[in-house]
Design brief:
heterodimer, A: about 500 residues, alpha/beta, six-stranded mixed β-sheet, 21 helices, about 45% helix, globular, B: about 70 residues
Chain lengths: ~500, ~70
């Protein structure tokens, strides 16, 4: 199938919207758009970060998911208490595959679930006493934790518990930072507000801790990797490239990160930000308060990596710039071989993406390096500034969908018939049963890393083994297939 | 009266960022932009106007300032 024209794409959107009642159609129409690279501002063609319509199937998360699951959760040497009923923490436990090194339960706590397990009496009489008791128990059982964070679940805000007071009191007693985070799930329209709340909590409780303390020896080449959650080891694959360039990575936010790394981040010379959506707030804050510049980079696919390495190097002196070229040259043979191997197998394949807040635009470069084309992309919880950045990356007349509903996504796929879909676990089995190759682009389908040159090799292999998997030829039941070929032979 | 984060982009233009509105625009013109004062009516590239009482000496970017809507 050749690329769709603008009119065809527009017609497709209208056709899909047909099924809705008038009011819903009017609302959903604002979230679906045909990409037009000539438009500078996305707000003219697409609406984002609005409440999902009741009744449609959305895949968004909540503020607690954004704060505990994304931003705070990966900080490995802190204990993150899921304060409230047991389910929120238990059913999201260790689901995000933020890799880390350390002894879980001794000095790192990433995959563990700590919860105050609210019961009826805690809702009626308040849970502050329970929280205080819980903090004491954690201190007794896990004395090597460097700090605690209290991640509120919905009831905390509803019953008006004063977690700040408990945190302050206990923090003084234990002489450890205890960070109350007001990330109750009902706040905001998606996990995006949870990211913001988590960033604000870091700003208020962590960032300033080492102000006026110059005991940390700095170098002119200190950088922090921000917004890399080390899914399947992503941050490690990024970090080695930066270190080979001669930069010193002081902090990783927050995949495989520690509390002290975060406290030291205001001492760095440059903040490198991968996930713009979830961590731009803290980068903006550090720029304002400490004068640390920040830049967005992209480590998906060799073209974007080279571009980003050069852009990063431009912030530093000539040695670093020369090193950046050396790094690119060093890996050239490696990634050229990968492209030579997989490009012929993947050339011209069409991809539809629907991920969170960054990858729908960041991975486009990596697919293009493999000769593939992204024909539709969309975000669960992006804001206008994300779409501003996306529209330049996407081809003309491609499809954009914001907070796409289950129905719309299925219909789009039926009409566009992509060769691959990249989305999450909630979409995976629907599309696989429809016979469309599928990769989870949140968790890398339990593979990874995908960042950096090392990650690109894995990325290319994974895409190939998904698209060119022989199983897609076996989608039809054998007896139906036999009938098909029989009738064909009869006809012939 | 939103809080606006002002920062310079790579080209030296001043970006006008309102977090609550996800608005990231470039400032097209500022009424008073001299060595002594900065402020007055501010026009953005999307055509909207905002007002801030002139500040002297001029603020150091990046910074956060409170603006009023220009049409108020």
């Amino acid at each position: 199938m050749t690329a769709m024209t603008r009119d065809e794409t527009q017609a497709l959107i209208l056709e899909v919207l047909e099924a809705y009642p008038d009011k819903a159609r009017k609302d959903r129409a604002k979230h679906l758009a045909v990409n037009d690279q000539s438009i500078e501002q996305s707000k003219k063609c697409i609406t984002s970060n609005r409440k999902s319509l009741p009744g449609v199937m959305t895949v968004r998360g909540c503020a607690y998911a954004g704060s505990k699951g994304v931003v705070w959760g990966p900080i490995k040497d802190m204990v993150h208490i899921s304060h409230g009923p047991v389910g929120c923490g238990q059913y999201s436990r260790a689901g995000r595959r933020n890799y880390y090194v350390g002894h879980t339960g001794i000095n790192t706590f990433g995959t563990m679930n700590f919860t105050s397990d609210f019961q009826e009496k805690d809702i009626v009489f308040g849970g502050d006493k329970k929280l205080a008791k819980l903090i004491d128990e954690i201190e007794q059982l896990f004395p090597l934790s460097k700090g605690l964070s209290v991640q509120s679940e919905c009831p905390i805000g509803l019953i008006g518990d004063d977690i700040e007071a408990v945190s302050k009191k206990k923090g003084k007693e234990l002489n450890k930072p205890i960070v109350p985070v007001r990330c109750e799930g009902f706040r905001g329209v998606s996990q995006s507000l949870g990211h913001h709340i988590a960033n604000d909590a870091i700003r208020d409780w962590v960032i300033g801790n080492r102000d006026g303390d110059d005991s940390f020896p700095t170098t002119p080449y200190d950088v922090a990797v921000i917004g890399d959650y080390n899914i399947g080891g992503d941050a490690w694959a990024s970090r080695i490239l930066l270190e080979e360039m001669g930069l010193r990575v002081v902090a990783q936010w927050s995949g495989d990160g520690t509390l002290s790394e975060m406290e030291l981040t205001p001492k760095v010379k440059l903040n490198l930000i991968h996930c713009y959506r979830s961590m731009n707030y803290i980068s903006r804050h550090m720029e304002e308060k400490y004068g640390i510049p920040w830049m967005e980079y992209n480590f998906f696919g060799p073209t974007k990596i080279a571009e980003s390495l050069r852009k990063i190097a431009a912030f530093f002196d000539e040695t670093i710039q020369a090193n950046a070229e050396k790094v690119i040259a060093k890996y050239e043979a490696e990634y050229s071989a990968i492209i030579a191997k997989y490009r012929p197998r993947l050339e011209g394949k069409r991809v539809m993406l629907y991920v969170g807040g960054l990858r729908p635009r960041h991975v486009i470069g990596a697919y293009e390096d493999l000769g593939m084309e992204v024909v539709g992309t969309g975000y669960e919880f992006a804001h206008n500034d994300d779409y501003d950045r996306t529209m330049k990356e996407m081809g003309n007349a491609t499809l954009l969908y914001d907070d796409v509903t289950g129905y719309e996504f299925e219909e789009f796929v039926k009409k566009i018939k992509p060769d691959l879909i990249g989305s999450g676990i909630k979409e995976k089995y629907i599309f696989q049963k429809m016979g469309v190759p599928f990769r989870q682009m949140h968790s890398w389908d339990y593979s990874g890393p995908y960042h950096g040159y090392d990650g690109f090799a894995i990325f290319a292999r994974d895409m190939d083994m998904t698209i060119n998997n022989p199983c897609w030829k076996s989608m039809q039941a054998p007896w139906l297939k036999a009938a098909d070929s029989e009738s064909q032979t009869l006809a012939a | 009266m939103p809080n606006v984060m002002l920062r310079k982009n790579d080209n030296g233009d001043v970006l006008f960022y309102v977090a609550k509105k996800d608005m990231e625009e470039t400032i097209a013109s500022v009424e008073m932009n001299t060595a002594e004062t900065w402020g007055g009516m501010v026009t953005l590239t999307d055509g909207s106007t905002w007002y801030i009482d002139p500040i002297s000496p001029p603020p150091v970017f990046p910074t956060t300032l409170r603006f009023k809507r220009g049409d108020e």
